[in-house]
Amino acid sequence: MGPWAAGVGWVGLAACQPQPAAQQGAPALARVVPKARVLEDLVLFQRIKEAAHAGIYKYRSKAQMDSAFAAARAQATDGMTVIDVYRLVVGITNFEGSLHNDTALPAAVRAEMHAAPAFFPYPVKLVAGQLLLNTARGPLPLGALIASINGIPARRLVRELGRYYTTDGLNTTGKTVGLAADFPEYYRLEYGPQAAFVVRYTVPGRPGTLAQTMPAVPYRAYEQAFAARHSKPFDDAFFNDAPRKYTFRLLPNRPAAVLTVNTFDIGEAGTAGHRRYAAFLDSCFGLLRQTPAITDLLVDVRANGGGDDNNDMHTFAYLAHAPFRENKGATVSFRQVPCRRYLSFEKNTAERATAVREIAGLLRTDFAGGPNGQLHQTARSNPVFQPRPNRFRGRLYLLISPRLASAGSMFAAMVRGRTAATVIGEETMGGYYGHTGHGELAYTLPNTGIQTSFYWVDLQQDVPPRAGQPFGRGVLPDYPVAQSRADFLANRDPQLAFALKLMAARAAGAAPTRGPRIGAPKH
């Protein structure tokens, strides 16, 4: 489908964030935005979303979204800082529900905020519903169960800070990914700067609740602690590029193979990166076809946050049993890019004009008017894919995680819905039935400099309805498997271990050894 991209912006909009005209030269964090200017930005924000974001009513009704916008305006007061307004915008984007929604502070505000010693000093991780300390280098023991920080219970922290990391629909598992990486920043944004943190915690095997006071640090110090976090051997690919984007291996002494695809950010059709990946896949599945003794294939996409268009469909063609499309349908809510003067470009009208022309070209070639006046994707831009001649015909297993998003979760949804694969792991961040992706738009609100960005095509993925797959949720596993605290402490991979054990049991003709095959989501 040409220059569309599932998971990355098609045209790299510049992240320009102009400073408000008022109070130039004042400290960025202390800058106060008059109430009238706040309301102007919030009204513009609603106008942009309604005009440009096709998925604005995907999970919420118009009445619900109107109420959310009105509630934000009702909270506007004189004396608000940019961060105060930022919290209002984040609340709306989180409520709307799209993992491609993003809200960014002006660069000067963010830099000044990060420089001050106001942040929680150590990484944390949500494991089995408990907030654990994720370092062995702090004053608390590794894996300490955090009960509260500065009097705020851990459960409340998880609930309130999760809104700063957007996910599709009603999904909450994906928010654990954001909390693991940016908990101190979310805490600073939600509760303000702190001089110190009083942490109340428990340690299994030790009686009572303990307390420890830790001084706040600049964000750079936290970043260094995160880079040295305990869980890095297990979850590094969730936050950094994996050493290899894709791998394939035969399991010794087993009739099985493992295909790992850590990203689809490989290159679009026609690029050298895509050609290398296509040749890699053809080689792997050619080997499987020529080796009938290999009866089981495990596909691991747990770190896959998306990437370039059609790499997901090209991969699925080696697993599909019948022809398929990427989408049942896709819609756009505008015929011309709205609110163009607020697009995030650095006063470069030529760059803005070029981007607008490119979008107009896509609208002409890939969309046509529908009966409701909305633009709908054309059949030409939504081609039928055929299963590859050397597609895999044996037992298929899929490993999923909360990190799976965009093209990664779309691939998982196709495997979940269109094959007999056994799916193991945790609910994905990206939706099963669809998402809003393809083509990034970024706007800057003029009075605060806050940037809002989103993707502008609403997609209905070509997957069948499933009784145990509610609308608004990510891809759900047959066998829910997640780390326990003991797994976390040992950096064990229980999902891979369970998959290999299940594969061995089935190869031997035995029944599954753990966990029910579910028909409804596990809460």
UniProtKB/TrEMBL annotation:
Superkingdom of the organism of origin: Bacteria
Gene Ontology molecular-function annotations: serine-type peptidase activity
GO biological process, one term: proteolysis
Domain called Tail specific protease: residue spans: 285-479
SUPFAM superfamilies: ClpP/crotonase
Coiled-coil regions listed in the entry: none
Protein name: Peptidase S41
Annotated source species: Hymenobacter nivis
